[in-house]
């Protein structure tokens, strides 16, 4: 019986040593996961919180440069008055800017239109980022209605140094099939 008890004690000690080694290895593996996780995130480009220097770079305003932004407004076969409230402004690349356009329906009935933007020079289009714009939706103006519509934008900091002036032009078109007919006509 003493041999059996001694054998059980030896087996218990071996099991205890194995369990302590396994627990220590799991604890160490948990600590090793943190730098491993950071490395995987950096390589995969996820969890940008680990790279705050790049986030700050993307949101800074380039105060060393100024661009002139000119505004233009046109209508195509649409009886509206349409104009920017400012003809041009000076902005820094990366600077969030708001400008307003005014539009007025000159008819005695509602009309729906939609604006399409264009840029000059064309190469500037990829750097011009609009966050709010009336061109994203159809606009229905009631008879004789006048409306002020904002455009919120920024010009990316990476805009070519060859570009010093950008023209943002909108052309409003009537949206076919959306005009409400006059009740007096048949």
Kindly summarize this structure in a few lines.
The chain is an alpha+beta fold and 186 residues long.
How large is the count of helical segments?
2
What string, H for helix and E for strand, traces the elements in order? HHEEEEEEEEE
Distance between the termini: 114 Å
Low-confidence stretches: 49-58, 182-186
Describe this structure in words.
The protein has 186 residues and is of the alpha+beta class. It contains 2 helices and 9 strands. The strands form 2 sheets. The chain has a 5-stranded mixed sheet with strand order 3-1-9-5-7, with no helix packed on it. A 4-stranded antiparallel sheet has the order 2-4-8-6, with no helix packed on it.
Ordered list of secondary-structure elements with their pairings:
Blueprint: H1 2-44, H2 52-59, E1 67-76, E2 80-84, E3 88-91, E4 97-105, E5 111-120, E6 128-132, E7 139-141, E8 146-155, E9 165-174
Parallel strand pairs: 1-9
Antiparallel strand pairs: 1-3, 2-4, 4-8, 5-7, 5-9, 6-8
Task: Give structural attributes.
186 residues, alpha+beta, five-stranded mixed β-sheet, 9 strands, 35% strand
């Amino acid at each position: 019986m003493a041999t059996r008890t001694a054998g059980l004690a030896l087996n218990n000690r071996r099991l205890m040593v194995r369990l302590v080694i396994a627990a220590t290895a799991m604890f160490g593996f948990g600590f090793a996961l943190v730098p491993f996780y950071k490395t995987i995130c950096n390589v995969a480009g996820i969890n940008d919180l680990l790279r705050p220097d790049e986030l700050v770079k993307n949101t800074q305003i380039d105060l060393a440069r100024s661009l002139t932004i000119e505004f233009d407004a046109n209508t195509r076969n649409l009886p509206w008055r349409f104009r920017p409230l400012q003809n041009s402004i000076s902005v820094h690349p990366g600077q969030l800017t708001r400008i307003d356009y005014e539009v007025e329906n000159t008819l005695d009935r509602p009309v729906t239109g939609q604006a399409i933007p264009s840029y000059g020079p064309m190469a500037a289009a990829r750097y011009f980022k609009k966050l709010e714009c009336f061109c994203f939706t159809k606009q229905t103006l009631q008879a004789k209605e006048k409306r002020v519509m904002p455009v919120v934008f920024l010009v990316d900091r990476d805009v070519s140094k060859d570009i010093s002036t950008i023209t943002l032009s909108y052309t409003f078109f009537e949206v076919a099939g959306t005009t409400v007919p006059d009740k007096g006509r048949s």
